[in-house]
Specification:
This is ABC transporter family protein. It comes from Collimonas arenae. Keywords: ATP-binding, Cell membrane, Membrane, Nucleotide-binding, Transport. One of its GO terms (molecular function) is ATP binding. The structure is a single chain. By secondary structure, the chain is of the alpha/beta class. The chain folds into two domains: 144 residues, P-loop containing nucleotide triphosphate hydrolases (Rossmann fold), CATH 3.40.50.300; 82 residues, no CATH class. The chain contains ten helices and ten strands. Strands 6-7-8-3-9-10 form a six-stranded mixed beta sheet, with helices on both faces. A hairpin with a 2-residue loop joins strand 9 and strand 10. Helix 3 crosses helix 5, helix 3 runs parallel beside helix 6 and helix 6 runs parallel beside helix 7. Bound molecules: adenosine-5'-diphosphate (ADP) and magnesium ion (MG). The site of adenosine-5'-diphosphate has 10 residues, from helix 1.
Length: 258
């Protein structure tokens, strides 16, 4: 099956969000297909993080629709949206500094499955939790820091751990908000590999400022300007899109048509 024939897993329809009298999201439309990696780019203040807050249930929408696997999710709580298979990471690191790397991941695995008490109380279930924790540890590349307190990791390590926490529940749709923010060139290169690995077989929507990461990873790129998606296309098409050039890429020195 080619990418365009894959089912749509996440869809935004004419989405609006106002804070007080100020419209921030102003009729955003977007469709993500199963298994694709999409980058969401756009100027600071365009509303990218707000869009994530709406999708993940953190902020209430003003109007419009959000569909996850064909189901309307606008109005659900972050917990409910997460239960339906969507996980998001934040711009800020969100881990327990005193707990070891492995314990941080185990807490996240438990949190994701803890509601099924009857099942998880059994001994076999503890085994399954530990195996899943080991698997997430491997995926986020922190085997060597297994026993280290989360707070003792370097910056890139903490971001990797945070990605581990995000994927621990096994969500099929991942929203990552600027996972390489504040990283050196080397670190973002490694983060790119990590994101590739953890999103393998999943559907990814990634807010990212580093254009090397964007063009190196994305199957498609959506461009958000003043609360609207002005273009959503392949990297090559986005690069040569004049409206995108004028609204955004030109200001970053990404060259027209190259
Ligand atoms: P981006 O992530 O694209 O840089 P944001 O979504 O963070 O942009 O912000 C878009 C605009 O919405 C900004 O002007 C910001 O100040 C405003 N905004 C975001 N969240 C809130 C909020 N909770 N209350 C009021 N204004 C907000
Ligand atoms: Mg943001």
């Amino acid at each position: 099956m080619s990418a365009t024939e894959q089912p749509i897993v996440l869809e935004l329809r004419n989405l609006h969000k106002q804070f007080g009298d100020t419209p921030i999201i102003r009729g955003a439309d977007l469709q993500l297909r199963q298994g694709e990696r999409m980058a969401l780019i756009g100027p600071n203040g365009a509303g990218k993080s707000t869009l994530f807050n709406l999708i993940s249930g953190r902020n209430a929408v003003t109007s419009g629709e959000i569909l996850l696997h064909g189901r309307h999710i606008a109005g659900l709580s972050p917990f409910q949206v997460n239960r339906l298979g969507l996980a998001r990471s934040f711009q800020i690191t969100n881990i327990f500094p005193q707990l070891s790397v492995w314990e941080n991941l185990r807490v996240a695995v438990l949190a994701a499955h803890g509601h099924r008490h009857a099942f998880w109380r059994r001994l076999a279930a503890l085994d399954a939790i530990n195996r899943r924790t080991d698997e997430v540890l491997r995926l986020c590349g922190l085997q060597g820091q297994r026993e280290m307190p989360g707070g003792a990791l370097g910056y890139a390590g903490q971001r990797a751990l945070e990605l581990g926490v995000t994927i621990a529940g096994g969500a099929g749709v991942l929203l990552l908000d600027e996972p390489t923010a504040g990283m050196s060139r080397d670190e973002s290169g490694q983060a790119l590999e990590l994101i590739r690995r953890i999103s393998d077989g999943k559907t990814l929507l990634l807010i990212e400022h580093d254009m090397e990461v964007v063009f190196g990873l994305a199957d498609r790129i959506a461009v958000l300007v003043e609360g609207r998606v002005i273009a959503c296309d392949t990297p090559a098409a986005i690069r040569s899109n004049r409206a995108v050039q004028e609204a955004y890429l030109g200001t970053l020195g990404v060259e027209f048509g190259s």
